Amino acid sequence: MLPLVLIALNYFLFTIAQTYNEDLTALVSLTKTWQWQNKPSNWEGPDPCDDGWDGIKCSKSRVTSIILTGLDIKGQLSEQIGLLSELQILDLSHNKGLTGPLPNSIGNLTKLSNLFLDGCGFNGRIPDEIGYLKELVFLALNSNNFSGRIPASIGNLSKLNWLDITDNQLEGPIPISNGSTPGLDMLLNTKHFHFGKNKLSGPIPAQLFSTEMTLIHLLFEYNEFDGNIPSTLGLVQSLEVVSLDGNLLSGHVPLNISNLTNLNELYLSNNKLSGSLPNLQGMNLLIYLDMSNNSFVESDFPGWISTLDNLSTLKMENTGLQGQIPDSLFNLSKLKNVILKDNRINGSLDIGDTYSKQLQVIDLQNNRIENFKQHDMVPSSIKIKLVHNPVCEESGVARSYCSNPEPSVPPTTTKNCEYAACSSGQVFSAHCKCSYPYTGTLRFRTPSFFDWGNETSLQERLMHIFQYCNLPVDSVSLSHRDNYPYLGFTLQIFPSNRDYFNQPEILRICSALSNLTMDAFYFYPDEYQHYGESTESSKSSDVGIIIRAAVGGGSALLVLLLIAGGYALWLKKNAAKAIQQSCPFGSGDSRDRSSSIPQLKGARRFSFEEVKKYTNNFSQDNDIGSGGYGKVYRGILPNGQLIAIKRAQKESMQGGFQFKAEVELLSRVHHKNLVSLLGFCFERGEQILVYEYISNGTLKDAIGKSVIIRLDWTRRLKIALDIARGLDYLHQHANPPIIHRDIKSGNILLDQRLNAKVADFGLSKMVDFEKDHVTTEVKGTMGYLDPEYYTSEQLTEKSDVYSYGVLMLELITAKRPIERGNYIVKVVRKEIDKTKDLYGLEKIVDPTIGARSTLKGFEMFVDLAIKCVEDSRADRPTMNDVVKEIENLLFSAGLNSNESTSSSYDENKIYITFGIYKRRGFLFARLVTGVLVIRGSEPWLISLDPG
């Protein structure tokens, strides 16, 4: 009976709906397959067009626009999307939970002009069918997990203005047309090529560029392009920004690059470019020039630089410059930043009497400057850095320019509101009104897109956009977040007339920021949890449809609808019951509902019975480790995914605190170099954490007595970089920031490809970095503990830096921090002799690290480690600085900082399947996949993945 009722009801709804049937089918399919926390409250009527569903726009009963940005949608994009044949705009940006492949049916949307899927979680290949969208003007697929090659079919999109595939896993060469095969060289009307932060490789094809192109922005940074910069690049005279930094480009810079007279910004840093410095005379619109860290031949300071009248920032670190800097350089009226460290510049620094009034930084560290003429007359607003120059090596010198102050950070632009306080969760606006702001991160595509002195103008520009869109925004504020690789700011948008935004307003704000054609930044929104009345307690959409249909259909179907309505209410009641059972705050014994229950953001709650099942009742065969907190078991989910289950011991005195800390922290942080928390169990007096399974154990074991894993120098460098990136994320990107407080080799796990992940957050602290420190009881592991924290009980992010420095020394020596009464930091400091190869540390270097000739960048790595373990935290670098230095080290050593740690051995892999284990006196065979690497005559078992 019930199926007949539902069929009849479905038929009735389709007959009264104003929306075209296929469009309605597509929308219903989408809503059925998605799970979302913030589903628009008016998606209850049966007719998306007639009822005006938020985010849906129609024309003549056809859906023409879907804009559902930043609503925390989870699931996949249904193949039914292809039914929306009149769709012109599809914007699902900033829904990280949207995963899986992009369906091939996307190619049916032949009237689509705008496709925005940036900031989602799509993976797999970009379908070739994307080339069927001949009306496409904007294509934004950036910040997903797309892999494979760029589809050559994109070359068919003759109307395309904007192509953004930044920050994915795309690889291989750039496709070029060949006979009947299309390629990107056919995109003559495209103004924006944004391809940064992928794994694209091979030479940049000369055929890509021509005089007919109208390209404005060419952003190819942080890929794996090699070979020469093609001379045909000089043909595209419309170019305004060229970013090729962070690749493997070599050879001479083409002479005709100076033909690009409209160029505002040129980024060539961190490549292998050689020959003479290019002569850029005549490029008078150039604002930002960075050619740092290349292999140019040594040359005197080029005079043509002083002719670039609009130059604001000059970065030429480690480019072989020598001789004296002409004082005419500082006469450039718009000059702000001069970064020329790590060269051989000598003579006197003379900035003259008519230097630029906008000058902010002159960084000449590690040069040969012997004198600074104006040292008593330069205003304090100009930061001069002459560390490691002869002028600073005289005895008794105590000039400010001979020390390295902590980098200054631009202040927040919010006003200081005195004599008032906001309620919990609210923030002061620029007009000193308390409200719940909508927040997110602005990431600028290149450094020059934002100027430290320009906060006000950017705020005004944003406010102009909001006013133009008729959005109820009172004010905005910006605060600095981080610098690398893309400059980032936290944006707060404050509502006017009330203390919250409603959901339609959030949709429009997010859409306005996501779809900006100003080409300055990416916007990454945070989840908004303070919606007003318009989004509270949404009713079941099924019930809403039934009520609407009953009103429109008369009494003939009343009984039928009542039956269906009763069934829907029954479903709703059971769904509510199921939700209550899965909610970590609303089930279990009352004794479990205490203040120690963690505040979660997305972690799943497992029942104790489920955990027992996944671990075969915590069998000894699945016991993979133990510690002060408890035991760790291997488990397997019904879908075959391996997991690690950490079960607290009953007698663990700090178990409750560590449980709460670890779940709260790990449920809010997500980074490839942090161990992912999948869920937890908090019932029957148990405290259990469920993690992703990391197959190769701890770094402590790997650099100890392991015969299965062998870490050479390259691997150790990349492991160090992985750890640094994880910590940098905790310090700079987590909200609020987090200090780990227990960095050690036993808390670093290595995955299948020997990528490092930071684990064990039981001692971590969330902090407010606007304060200098957090006063707290000293916790951590002896040998790794920051001495300044130990004596003062004042915890800062530099405490993690110190522990990390000890870990770096452990990577070099394979010795424990305290071994036979010797402290590794003191041992290394005592043994260092910088006049010798490897700083004279051969006798304490781990012999399995590799031959001396392979230890490229060893001395730089030691120098960085010693900086990290300085006794005073003020003398230590930040983790962001550490990341940059190790990346530069890898580049200078000819290594790629973004490739997997095991990829250098791909040529000699042998894939094997085997496995025997013993249980209760019997031998069992088990399928295990792995990688066996043959290096020389020695077989190394790199990884095992139990199936």
Automatic annotation (TrEMBL):
<protein>
    <recommendedName>
        <fullName>non-specific serine/threonine protein kinase</fullName>
        <ecNumber>2.7.11.1</ecNumber>
    </recommendedName>
</protein>
<dbReference type="InterPro" id="IPR000719">
    <property type="entry name" value="Prot_kinase_dom"/>
</dbReference>
<dbReference type="Pfam" id="PF00560">
    <property type="entry name" value="LRR_1"/>
</dbReference>
<feature type="binding site">
    <location>
        <position position="646"/>
    </location>
    <ligand>
        <name>ATP</name>
    </ligand>
</feature>
<keyword id="KW-0675">Receptor</keyword>
<dbReference type="GO" id="GO:0004674">
    <property type="term" value="F:protein serine/threonine kinase activity"/>
</dbReference>
<keyword id="KW-0808">Transferase</keyword>
<keyword id="KW-0433">Leucine-rich repeat</keyword>
<keyword id="KW-0677">Repeat</keyword>
<feature type="domain" description="Protein kinase">
    <location>
        <begin position="618"/>
        <end position="891"/>
    </location>
</feature>
<dbReference type="GO" id="GO:0016020">
    <property type="term" value="C:membrane"/>
</dbReference>
<dbReference type="InterPro" id="IPR017441">
    <property type="entry name" value="Protein_kinase_ATP_BS"/>
</dbReference>
<keyword id="KW-0723">Serine/threonine-protein kinase</keyword>
<dbReference type="InterPro" id="IPR001611">
    <property type="entry name" value="Leu-rich_rpt"/>
</dbReference>
<keyword id="KW-0067">ATP-binding</keyword>
<keyword id="KW-0812">Transmembrane</keyword>
<dbReference type="InterPro" id="IPR008271">
    <property type="entry name" value="Ser/Thr_kinase_AS"/>
</dbReference>
<keyword id="KW-1133">Transmembrane helix</keyword>
<dbReference type="Pfam" id="PF00069">
    <property type="entry name" value="Pkinase"/>
</dbReference>
<feature type="transmembrane region" description="Helical">
    <location>
        <begin position="545"/>
        <end position="570"/>
    </location>
</feature>
<keyword id="KW-0418">Kinase</keyword>
<feature type="signal peptide">
    <location>
        <begin position="1"/>
        <end position="17"/>
    </location>
</feature>
<keyword id="KW-0472">Membrane</keyword>
<dbReference type="GO" id="GO:0005524">
    <property type="term" value="F:ATP binding"/>
</dbReference>
<keyword id="KW-0732">Signal</keyword>
<dbReference type="InterPro" id="IPR011009">
    <property type="entry name" value="Kinase-like_dom_sf"/>
</dbReference>
<keyword id="KW-0547">Nucleotide-binding</keyword>
<keyword id="KW-0325">Glycoprotein</keyword>
<dbReference type="InterPro" id="IPR032675">
    <property type="entry name" value="LRR_dom_sf"/>
</dbReference>
